[in-house]
Amino acid sequence: MGDYLTKNLTFTLTPYGDLLRRFRRVAVEGFSKPAAQHFHPIQNREAIMLALALVKSPPNLEKHLHRHASSIMLSINYHLPPVESEDDPNVVGVETHVRRLSHEMNPGDTFS
Description:
This protein is mostly helical. It is built from 6 helices and no strands. Helix 4 (about 40-55) packs antiparallel against helix 5 (about 60-80).
């Protein structure tokens, strides 16, 4: 199924074999304990941005947490600058892909 949806470029849908072993090796090296220390500046920046956003508009907690999580993920995985809004094209693109993938993987649903 992963070959139809993502051309086997998604770690979670890659069948067992050489490609999966390469993906796993990169993930282990990139997210090891020593490598995780390089993420501290990103996490500190995002913690400050989250705190400031919560002070400005506390009722929007879910929106702020979504932006916070998206920004950390995109910054660490893709070296992108901080996400300022949920409407960021990168966030919208990831959400669209995940929604499509979730829909297509439901039993009985067809590829569209």
